[in-house]
Design brief:
The complex is a heterodimer. Chain A has helices at residues 2-20, 26-36, 39-80. Chain A is mostly helical. Chain A is elongated and about 75 Å long. Chain A has two domains: 1-37; 38-100. By secondary structure, chain B is mainly α. Chain B has one domain (33-193). Chain B is built from eight helices and no strands. In chain B, helix 5 (116-139) crosses helix 7 and helix 6 (142-159) packs across helix 7. The longest helix of chain B has 49 residues, at 4-52. Chain B is elongated and about 80 Å long. Chain B starts with a helix and ends with a helix. Classes of the chains: A mainly alpha, B mainly alpha. Chains A and B meet through helix 1, helix 2 and helix 3 of A and helix 1 and helix 2 of B.
C-alpha cells in the first residue's frame, strides 16, 4: 500500500511539471510553487526535523554512556560473581550483527 | 492540467508520508526495543543486588536460571513478537508435539530448596520480567492490542474503577495469560542465552 501511495505521488508531481514545461521559467515556477506551500506545514516539518535531530544526538549520547559504564559495571560485578553471565549485546547495548 | 496548489499539496503529502513512514518503521521500533531492554536490565540489576545482599547465593540454581532467562530476553528482544511466538508455538505443539519444559521444571526444582520468603522474592522478579515481555509482545501486535482493550473494559466492569496503572497491569497480565504461553518463551529465552 505504501509503495502504491508513493508511486501516485511521484506520478502527480511529474504530470504537474510536464504540464508547465515551456510555459514559465524555472524561477517563476519555483516561486509560485513555494508560495503555495503552507506556512504551517513548513513550520511543522521544521519542528519535526529539529526533534528528530535532538532525538538522534540524545541517542548517541546514551549509547556512549552505556559503552563507558558497561565495562566498569561488568568488572565490578565479576568481583562479586565470578560466574556472571552476560546478555551478549554489543558494548553500546545493541543487537550483535550475528543475532539479527 | 494540475495547478500549483495541487502540486504543493502533493509535495506536502509526500514529505509527510516519508516522515511518518520513517517514524513508524524505524524510530518507533528502535525506541520500543531500547525501552524493553532497559526495563529488563533494571530487573536483572535488582536481582543482582538482591543476591549481593546475601539473601540468595550467586551460585544457587534459581538465581542462575532467572538470570539466564533475562539474558535471553535481552539478547533476542528484537525478535520478541506475537507472530514469532505463534510460529514457535505451532512448531512446539503441532510439529514436534513437545509437552515438557526443561527450564520450567528446573526452575520449580530450584525454588523447592529455598525458604518461603526468598522463593516469593524470586517469583516476584520473574513476574516483573514476564510483565515486560508481555507488554512488549502485546503493544507490538494489533491483534493483542484489541484483546487488551477488551480485557480493560471487562476488568473495569468486573472489578470497578481503580488506578490507571493498576488497571493496565491487571489487563496486561490477563491478556498475556490468555494469548501467550510463558513456558515456551522461557524455554526459548534460556536456550538463546545458553
Amino acid at each position: 500500500m505504501c509503495s502504491i501511495a508513493a508511486v501516485l505521488m511521484v506520478r502527480d508531481t511529474s504530470e504537474a511539471f510536464a504540464a508547465y514545461a515551456g510555459r514559465q521559467s524555472n524561477a517563476n515556477l519555483l516561486f509560485n510553487f513555494m508560495g503555495n506551500v503552507n506556512v504551517l506545514f513548513t513550520g511543522s516539518i521544521a519542528v519535526s526535523g529539529f526533534s528528530i535531530v535532538l532525538y538522534w544526538k540524545e541517542r548517541r549520547q546514551h549509547r556512549e554512556t552505556r559503552k563507558r559504564l558497561a565495562a566498569r559495571i561488568t568488572e565490578l560485578e565479576l568481583k562479586l560473581d565470578p560466574k556472571r553471565t552476560s546478555s551478549k549485546l554489543t558494548e553500546e547495548g545493541l543487537t550483535r550483527r550475528e543475532d539479527e | 492540467m494540475i495547478d500549483l496548489t495541487v502540486l504543493a499539496i502533493t509535495f506536502q503529502s509526500t514529505v509527510l508520508f516519508i516522515v511518518a513512514l520513517a517514524m513508524l518503521l524505524w524510530l518507533w521500533p528502535a525506541v520500543r526495543l531500547d525501552c524493553f531492554r532497559q526495563k529488563m536490565f533494571k530487573v536483572r540489576d535488582d536481582l543482582f543486588d538482591y543476591a549481593a545482599s546475601g539473601r540468595v547465593s550467586f551460585d544457587h540454581p534459581a538465581y542462575r536460571l532467572l538470570r539466564q532467562s533475562m539474558n535471553g530476553f535481552i539478547r533476542y528482544g528484537h525478535q520478541l513478537s506475537f507472530y514469532r511466538f505463534t510460529m514457535t508455538w505451532l512448531e512446539w505443539k503441532i510439529l514436534e508435539g513437545r509437552a515438557s519444559f526443561q527450564w520450567r521444571d528446573r526452575w520449580r526444582a530450584a525454588l523447592g530448596s529455598l525458604d518461603d520468603e526468598t522463593r516469593a522474592d524470586l517469583e516476584n522478579f520473574r513476574d516483573r520480567a514476564e510483565l515486560h515481555v508481555a507488554t512488549r509482545m502485546i503493544f507490538g501486535s494489533p491483534v493483542l492490542i484489541f484483546i487488551l482493550l477488551v480485557t480493560i473494559i471487562v476488568t473495569l466492569f468486573h472489578v470497578g474503577v481503580r488506578s490507571a496503572g493498576d488497571l493496565l497491569r491487571v489487563a496486561l497480565s490477563d491478556t498475556a495469560a490468555r494469548a501467550i504461553d510463558q513456558s515456551i518463551l522461557d524455554e526459548e529465552a534460556a536456550r538463546a542465552a545458553a
